[in-house]
């Protein structure tokens, strides 16, 4: 019979007797094996608990969804500004090249629009009933156009530099514009849009075109090589006055409106700030970075450490590429285990079509995506928060006389103002949620302009409090 040693402090330790039979020996060994398994199991549990304690509680996870150019990456930038401003500002130097490209590409669109008018005028037949009219573009506008030709080279150089520096992570993808339904679609030719593969932190890709090795602080222009002969600032600066004149010319504005070129296609925010953007030592501001356009490819994960009531929690925010070629099957693996989805629907684009399919209205596409998300059974326990975004653009659009009822027939004769149109669209999205939701849900809906940090900060911080509270209830820390 096995005996426990009275001296041994380990109760599971078994001392062999001096004499034992074969059966006794087997029984003792079996008992020792069981005792060891139990002891190992306990050690493993203790180690697991230790690791978990070190890791802290599970991170809170948020997924940003919506069609391309709905404002997902801009919402992520707001998260960065609020909870990781150091890394947001560390990217300042890299955003400079993106903004320069946004500017020259807007001018490419304007110059293309002028060329189309010239071609039309040169080719329209002249007859006694249709006499030759004075050309729309004055000699002065034409000579400005000629002087702005170097911008084409700047565009090419910037794309080449970014794609080379990005080492395969940065791509130049074709851009077709959003056009306008049943209207003359601007033929933008080979306009390319820079896209970043989100599996890497993008600033690392661009670090190779900035002086990262000489960077000393993260909240300044350090990293911008002011003596870099390849930096296009000199050409931009030389073209500055012509660019300003062209953008502010009434004939050009009419021409752009006639060709249905919208502020979204033209980075209007940057065109209104040309004097500042083309200055010799231009450094992007926070607002500039929020307005810069860089298309996302794939899915990227961003970690934030957020402090609330004395403790620090990990938050993971996932940003996805919304372009149809990227999505939407790629989103599904991320549905599992999300605490919340922020769904962005840019309601200003009710008069636009998808860049990737000119037969599909962008608002209609948002309704479809929203239906797909709220009805997905994998998401039945996930909070879904709707951002009806780009309210600033909606306001300008409605004020310019563009009517919602021309694109959303059911809107009927309701007043074409911001209050009524937003309330109507909020009801439409809410109706879909009520009808199609995979589980009973609270309808969280916000009118947003995510390029406005102040209002977005308020919304995101309320959202953070709500999720934190829910998470505590879930983990039974409070009831
Ligand atoms: N005026 C205005 N511009 C906005 C707003 N939200 C986003 N934008 C701009 O719209 C452009 C596209 O925004 P992104 O955040 O890159 O869009 P996205 O959803 O990440 O697009 P993909 O990466 O292609 O899926 C950027 O230039 C933004 O600055 C808004 O509320 N108002
Ligand atoms: Mg994006």
From TrEMBL:
One annotated GO biological process: adenylate cyclase-modulating G protein-coupled receptor signaling pathway
A GO molecular-function annotation: GTP binding
Database matches in CDD domains: G-alpha
Residues the record lists as binding Mg(2+): 296
Residues given in the record as GTP binding sites: 290-296, 389-392
Sorted UniProt keywords: GTP-binding, Magnesium, Metal-binding, Nucleotide-binding, Transducer
Any one Pfam family match given in the protein's UniProt record, by short name: G-alpha
Domain of life where this protein originates: Eukaryota
GO cellular component: cytoplasm; heterotrimeric G-protein complex
PANTHER family hit by this protein: GTP-BINDING PROTEIN ALPHA SUBUNIT, GUANINE NUCLEOTIDE-BINDING PROTEIN SUBUNIT ALPHA HOMOLOG
Identification of the protein by name: G-alpha-domain-containing protein
Organism, scientific name: Galerina marginata (strain CBS 339.88)
Upper classification of the organism: Eukaryota, Fungi, Dikarya, Basidiomycota, Agaricomycotina
